[in-house]
């Protein structure tokens, strides 16, 4: 087979000669090992140029055109003078734990030759001579690849390669050494496991010192000296402070135990005392409105009329017995007994009497408005104002003997 290679390459050269492009003569410097040849050629194929110059390449040789790798049978496109370097293949005898074989290579270094031979290299491999050693002659290379290892830390698996003698050395080599309370399986002084699996448990402990607030309590008192609807803080509340010392143990970053070693109160909380007004004070609604009110609040308003009440027909009856229509407003049935008969004034609507009940839960469910803050405004069918949304409701005098619980 060896004696036929020149014939094969010369046979390839012949059709290339016949198909050569337009002749462009150029000065060419050929470096074949220690030999330097200067030629003038109008050929563009490195194979033809080298063959014509007497430097016939072999199948494993490689060529560089002006320092750049170039295919032997690919035309040179560079213009002007050309530097053509032929790098001859050498025999690399590769010795591994599994075999010994010869490789013909024109690679520049041991690393490049092993890579081209299909080996995956890592800095943990045992290679002699070193990977960066140049290949200028026949060389024997001993290559002991590092073992593939899977290191599990918690739920994370790290894949490393190592030729270390022990588990601990392999972990340290990979930048994940065992420190402090850390443990491994197999233990760190054992040889690398045959199945390549190593489990590491990172163990740490810490002391946590925290300050926690103690919420203050609120004590409410009723005061006849303060207007209804107003609050007055008689004594401000002050939060207390507790110091807690806790020992925490972690394995692989996850807390596995927590023990409170000490807990002490640095300062006690002080109760806040609030006086809620119960004094009824009448105030004018304002403007040209000739009414006085004892309480005002924001309520969400909807509207209805006898024939727009959601019953499927016309209904003129109300909870109070009054005829449904303008001037009669409804509230939720749960608070109607507290408010029935009270007069209210609503800007944009006017004077009204609470005399009917409605479906507050529907509003509460659909709009998120508490049923105690909803009011339904009655209109006549032939005069519907359709006021809706948040409105101010003024509760007019006289004030009730007992203030409803849901009023602030």
Write the layout of secondary structure elements.
Layout: H1 5-18, E1 26-32, E2 35-41, H2 46-52, E3 62-65, E4 68-70, E5 82-87, E6 90-95, E7 100-105, H3 110-116, E8 126-128, E9 139-144, E10 147-153, E11 156-162, H4 167-173, E12 183-185, E13 197-201, E14 203-214, E15 218-227, E16 231-235, E17 240-251, E18 254-267, E19 272-279, E20 283-286, E21 289-304, E22 328-332, H5 333-339, E23 343-346, E24 350-358, H6 360-367, E25 374-378, E26 389-396
Parallel strand pairs: 1-5, 6-9, 10-13, 15-19, 21-25, 22-24
Antiparallel strand pairs: 1-2, 3-4, 3-5, 6-7, 8-9, 10-11, 12-13, 14-17, 16-19, 17-18, 20-21, 21-26, 22-25, 23-24, 23-26
Task: Note down, in words, how this protein is organized.
This protein is mainly beta and 408 residues long. It has five domains: 2-87, Phosphatidylinositol 3-kinase Catalytic Subunit, Chain A, domain 1 (Ubiquitin-like (UB roll), Roll); 90-144; 147-201; 206-277, Resuscitation-promoting factor rpfb fold (Single Sheet); 280-396, Barwin-like endoglucanases (Beta Barrel). Helix content is 12%, strand content 45%. The strands form six sheets. Strands 21-25-22-24-23-26 form a six-stranded mixed barrel. A five-stranded mixed sheet has the order 2-1-5-3-4, with helices on one face. A hairpin with a 3-residue loop joins strand 23 (343-346) and strand 24 (350-358). 18% of the residues are buried.
């Amino acid at each position: 087979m060896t004696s036929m290679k020149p014939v094969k390459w010369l046979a390839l050269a012949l059709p290339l000669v016949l198909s050569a492009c337009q002749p462009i003569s150029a000065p060419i410097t050929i470096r074949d090992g220690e030999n330097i040849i200067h030629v003038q050629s109008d050929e563009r194929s490195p194979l033809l140029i080298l063959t014509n110059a007497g430097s016939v390449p072999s199948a494993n040789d490689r060529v560089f055109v002006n320092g750049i790798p170039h295919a032997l049978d690919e035309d040179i496109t560079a213009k002007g003078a050309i530097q053509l370097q032929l790098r001859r293949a050498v025999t690399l005898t590769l010795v591994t734990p599994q075999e010994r074989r010869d490789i013909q290579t024109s690679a520049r270094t041991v690393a490049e030759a092993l890579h081209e031979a299909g080996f995956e290299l890592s800095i943990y491999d045992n290679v002699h001579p070193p990977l960066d050693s140049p290949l200028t002659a026949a060389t024997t290379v001993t290559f002991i690849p590092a073992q593939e290892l899977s290191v599990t830390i918690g739920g994370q698996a790290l894949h490393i390669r190592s030729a270390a003698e022990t588990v601990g050395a392999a972990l340290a080599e990979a930048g994940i050494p065992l420190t402090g309370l850390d443990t491994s399986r197999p233990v760190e002084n054992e040889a690398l496991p045959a199945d390549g699996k190593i489990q590491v448990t990172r163990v740490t402990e810490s002391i946590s010192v925290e300050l926690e607030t103690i919420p203050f309590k609120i004590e409410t008192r009723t005061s006849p000296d303060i207007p209804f609807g107003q609050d007055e803080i008689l004594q401000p509340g002050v939060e207390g402070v507790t110091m807690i010392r806790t020992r925490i143990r972690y394995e692989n970053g996850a807390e596995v135990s927590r023990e409170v070693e000490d807990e002490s109160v640095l300062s006690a909380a002080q109760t806040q005392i609030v006086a809620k007004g119960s004094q009824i004070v009448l105030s004018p609604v304002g403007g040209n409105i000739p009414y006085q009110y004892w309480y005002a609040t924001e309520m969400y308003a909807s509207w209805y009329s006898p024939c727009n009440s959601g019953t499927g027909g016309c209904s003129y009856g109300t909870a109070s017995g009054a005829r449904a229509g303008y001037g009669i407003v409804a509230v939720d049935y749960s608070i109607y007994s507290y408010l029935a008969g009270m007069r209210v004034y609503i800007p944009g609507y006017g004077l009204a009497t609470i005399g009917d009940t409605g479906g507050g839960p529907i509003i509460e469910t659909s709009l998120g408005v508490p049923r105690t803050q909803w009011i339904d405004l009655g209109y006549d069918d032939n005069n519907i104002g359709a006021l809706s949304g948040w409105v101010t409701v003024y509760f007019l005098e006289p004030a009730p003997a007992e203030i409803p619980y849901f009023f602030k």
